[in-house]
């Protein structure tokens, strides 16, 4: 019997004891340290060839993850069902891969394709939203009624579990809590697939006491609530009074025992505010958010503009500041660009250990920020196919090939590209445009189509890429490559 299966059965059998021990102040510290070690050990199984600082940052993010969990336990802010599902679903199945059926699905995928499957899928079940935020990447609004039929949504999740061993799903939109189809809503989906764990991006305005209670009863969902900064900035983009409604939603979630985080879009205008000590203290101490996802502004979607892109100097400062927060405060606060080192670069296009995106019409895209689709899952199903049929689509294969050449598949750190510039769409725009021109994926909407015809936009992106490279390339060389070369030389000398 495989070691993983033995570990799975033993761990699952001991879950009730582990749960009780975590609520005990005497045992909790030891268990948290063991959890940190276990996750890191598994994460680093194949990462010894990465730059030393990359390895260090992976340990720091693991520590931030488990200590964020630790704080939630100390505060007694997790409902019993939530704690149980966090242990079994998030840590057990998703993070440590202790789920027997998941192990079997992963092995079967490796036999078919020679690589590991993706670990997540992002689904936007509806375009409908009660807000109309400036610069929305999805161009969502109240008149947008496009939604996936329940059968399609449920089938996507079912096949992702069965065929690829996926246990972690991200739900976005539109506003997911407005999804309705055939008498079902998004919490019905979460409850049905109770062996999985769901992260849901939401504007927070639909979370009342009843919704929070349903989330607590399901136990396997965490909402990431979008904010732009403090009240003035949030209301300026999202609408007057939204900030106060967000705080009410957080109060309902705390009362119900549901863990939640915040989702941030960093722009040239708000970067310093959302990374300030005052902001971190307010949301992570006073409001008791457990995590934060930071997305640097992408010039796509409604009203796309290059004027909101963080400057190269701001990106450098954000890199320093983000890792300071992670390292010193042990808060799970991830910048999806400046923390590209922990994912080995871009994770889009169904990459091993990565993800892909399906929108409300069934269009399958490499990423929510690359709104160009070569295939529609609804049409695949109509032809008698399955989710498996999208894996070898040439457009996705080409993106994965670029990821591999940029460093993901490289053996030596000096062969890696700069993972502080991980995004082919924003940091290597010429590369992505060449792939789009070659494979001609369908633009998701009018804004995506317009961007392809906008020469000023194209030239501006290339100029931005070069300016960022000049600032961040020396940092990559000094902080990541040089120390690794030094250590390699020292090790070789000592062996001789």
In short:
By secondary structure, this protein is of the alpha/beta class.
Keywords for this entry:
single chain, about 500 residues, alpha/beta, TIM Barrel, 3 domains, 10-stranded mixed beta sheet, two-stranded antiparallel ribbon, 18 helices, 12 strands, globular
Global Rg? 22 Å
Order of helices and strands: HHHHHEHEHEHEHHEHHEHEEEEEHHHEHH
Low-confidence stretches: none
CATH architecture of the largest domain: Alpha-Beta Barrel
In round numbers, the mean pLDDT is: 91
Tell me the CATH topology of the largest domain. TIM Barrel
* Structure annotation, total helices: 18
Total domains, how many? 3
3D shape? globular
Q: What's the CATH H-level homologous superfamily of the largest domain?
A: Aldolase class I
The order of strands across the largest sheet is 7-6-5-4-3-2-1-8-9-11
Q: Largest sheet at a glance? A: 10 strands, mixed
Number of strands: 12
In CATH's first tier, which class of the largest domain applies? Answer: Alpha Beta
Q: For the terminal residues, how far apart are their CA atoms?
A: 41 Å
């Amino acid at each position: 019997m495989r070691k993983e299966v033995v570990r799975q059965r033993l761990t699952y059998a001991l879950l009730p004891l582990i749960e009780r021990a975590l609520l005990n102040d005497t045992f909790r510290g030891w268990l948290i340290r063991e959890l940190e070690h276990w996750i890191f050990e598994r994460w680093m199984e194949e990462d010894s060839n990465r730059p030393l600082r990359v390895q260090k940052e992976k340990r720091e993010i693991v520590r931030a993850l488990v200590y964020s969990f630790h704080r939630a336990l100390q505060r007694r802010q997790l409902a019993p069902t939530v704690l149980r599902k966090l242990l079994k679903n998030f840590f057990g199945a998703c993070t440590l891969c202790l789920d027997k059926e998941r192990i079997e699905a992963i092995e079967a995928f490796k036999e078919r394709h020679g690589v590991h499957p993706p670990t997540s899928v992002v689904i936007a079940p509806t375009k409908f939203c009660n807000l109309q935020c400036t610069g929305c990447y999805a161009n969502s609004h109240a008149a947008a009624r496009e939604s996936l039929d329940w059968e399609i949504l449920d089938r996507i999740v079912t096949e992702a579990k069965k065929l690829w061993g996926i246990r972690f799903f991200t739900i976005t939109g539109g506003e997911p809590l407005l999804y309705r189809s055939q008498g079902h809503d998004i919490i019905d989906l979460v409850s049905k697939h109770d062996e999985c764990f769901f992260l849901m991006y939401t504007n927070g305005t639909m979370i009342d006491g009843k919704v929070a209670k349903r989330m607590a009863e399901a136990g396997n969902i965490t909402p990431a609530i979008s904010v732009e900064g403090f009240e003035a900035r949030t209301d300026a983009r999202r609408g007057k009074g939204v900030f106060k409604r967000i705080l009410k939603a957080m109060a309902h979630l705390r009362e119900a025992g549901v863990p939640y985080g915040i989702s941030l879009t960093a722009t040239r205008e708000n970067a310093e505010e959302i990374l300030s000590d005052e902001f971190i203290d307010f949301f992570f101490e006073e409001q008791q958010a457990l995590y934060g996802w930071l997305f640097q502004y992408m010039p796509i979607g409604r009203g796309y503009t290059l004027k909101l892109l963080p400057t190269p100097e701001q990106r450098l400062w954000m890199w320093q500041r983000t890792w300071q927060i992670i390292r010193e405060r042990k808060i799970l606060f991830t910048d999806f660009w400046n923390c590209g080192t922990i994912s080995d670069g871009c994770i889009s296009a169904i990459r091993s250990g990565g993800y892909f995106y399906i929108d409300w019409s069934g269009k399958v895209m490499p990423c929510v920020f690359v709104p160009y689709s070569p295939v529609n899952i609804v049409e695949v199903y109509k032809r008698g196919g399955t989710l498996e049929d999208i894996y070898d689509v040439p457009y996705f294969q080409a993106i994965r090939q670029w990821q591999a050449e940029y460093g993901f598949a490289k053996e030596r750190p000096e062969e890696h590209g700069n993972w502080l510039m991980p995004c082919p769409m924003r940091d290597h725009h010429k590369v992505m445009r060449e792939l789009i021109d070659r494979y001609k994926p369908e633009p998701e909407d009018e804004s995506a189509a317009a961007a392809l015809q906008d020469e000023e936009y194209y030239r501006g992106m290339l100029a931005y890429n070069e300016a960022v490279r000049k600032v961040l390339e020396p940092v990559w060389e000094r902080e990541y490559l040089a120390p690794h070369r030094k250590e390699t030389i020292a090790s070789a000398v000592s062996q001789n």
